[in-house]
Design goal:
Blueprint (H helix, E strand, L loop, with lengths): L1 H28 L4 H7 L8 H11 L5 H13 L13 H36 L4 H15 L2 H15 L12 H30 L2 H8 L4 H12 L2 H17 L1 H6 L5 H10 L3 H29 L7
Pfam families: BPD_transp_1 (PF00528), BPD_transp_1_N (PF19300)
Subunit structure: The complex is composed of two ATP-binding proteins (NikD and NikE), two transmembrane proteins (NikB and NikC) and a solute-binding protein (NikA).
Keywords: Cell membrane, Ion transport, Membrane, Nickel, Nickel transport, Transmembrane, Transmembrane helix, Transport
């Protein structure tokens, strides 16, 4: 397992290089001048061409794109993500200050998703063609069909405007996390309901489950220790994808609810053409996604010893 882990770590290097290189080139192809946007700031006063040229020279924007990328990569090797063009603060500090808010939102979103999908998925598999099964299918269909931004606005309208139970935006106590976490959790629950149901139905039809029941084992023991564990692998795969995607995929939800996480911070940086912030954000997302997927692969071996890591 150690050799497999080291090989996977080495494979991360070209992934990081490819992701950051493509992002750097695309950002340089988009219209707009970061120096002009930085000098204009919030005042809206158009800076002079001389001031723009001086700022571009100081920021290194007059160099060819490959030189800019090489200079940024050299700083990253020395654990320096640079300074934000708009705030002049270290990018690492800006990201780490906002990362806990995004992690908090992702944790509660996963909790909401599991609270919805586990009982409905297991109940649908144990009682097919019952009212539980029909309810699970309806919830799964609605979850998959509803766009995240529409669901978020719907929850804001009913939960905040009509019922006045939750704050509309911002991060202030537990009530403020309920609506954004539900938006993300409900959006993910549909796929999990379907995967849990189909996986559990397949396992319940196997011979060793029939043998366990024939031995007189309690149904709760058959389902919990034998069936559920063996139906867990596809759910683990989806969890790895979703946990990695929660940081980047919560951008829309964080924008709707003005949640002070790194997703909203990245959206603001895109409008400001803050290349350094965007590059740091992309690198952090790449590290997180690849690391989570590696952890999921290693967990496969722990769940099912028959799996060999190659």
């Amino acid at each position: 397992m150690i050799a497999y882990f080291l090989r996977r770590v080495l494979h991360m290097i070209p992934v990081f290089l490819g992701v950051t290189c493509v992002t750097f080139v695309l950002m340089n192809l988009t219209p707009g001048d970061p120096a002009e946007i930085m000098l204009r700031g919030t005042s809206g006063v158009q800076p002079s061409p001389e001031a723009i040229d001086a700022a571009r020279e100081a920021m290194g924007l007059n160099d060819p794109v490959y030189k800019q990328y090489a200079a940024w990569l050299w700083r990253v090797v020395h654990l320096d993500l640079g300074r934000s063009y708009s705030s002049n603060l270290p990018v690492w500090q800006e990201l780490t200050d906002r990362l806990p808010a995004t992690l908090l939102l992702g944790m509660w979103a996963l909790a909401a998703m599991l609270a919805i999908s586990l009982p409905l998925g297991i109940g649908s598999a144990l009682y097919p063609h019952s009212w539980v099964d029909r309810l699970a299918r309806i919830v799964a269909m609605l979850s998959i069909s509803m766009p995240g931004y529409w669901l978020g606005l719907l929850l804001v309208y009913y939960g905040s405007v009509k019922l006045k139970l939750f704050p509309v935006m911002g991060m202030d106590g537990f009530r403020s996390v309920v609506l954004p976490a539900l938006t993300l959790g409900i959006g993910m629950a549909g796929n999990y309901i379907r995967v849990i149901r189909s996986g559990l139905l397949d396992v319940l039809g196997t011979s060793y489950i029939k043998a366990a029941r024939a031995k007189g084992l309690q149904e709760s023991l058959v389902i919990g220790r034998h069936a559920a564990v063996n139906a867990l692998l596809p759910v683990m795969t989806m969890l790895g994808i979703n946990i990695g995607g929660l940081l980047g995929g919560s951008v829309i939800v964080e924008t709707i609810f003005s949640w002070p996480g790194i997703g909203k911070f990245a959206v603001d940086a895109i409008f400001k053409k803050d290349f350094i912030v965007i590059q740091g954000y992309v690198l952090l997302m790449a590290v997180f996604v690849v690391s989570v997927n590696l952890a999921v692969d290693l967990c496969y071996r722990m769940i099912d010893p028959r799996i060999r890591l190659r």
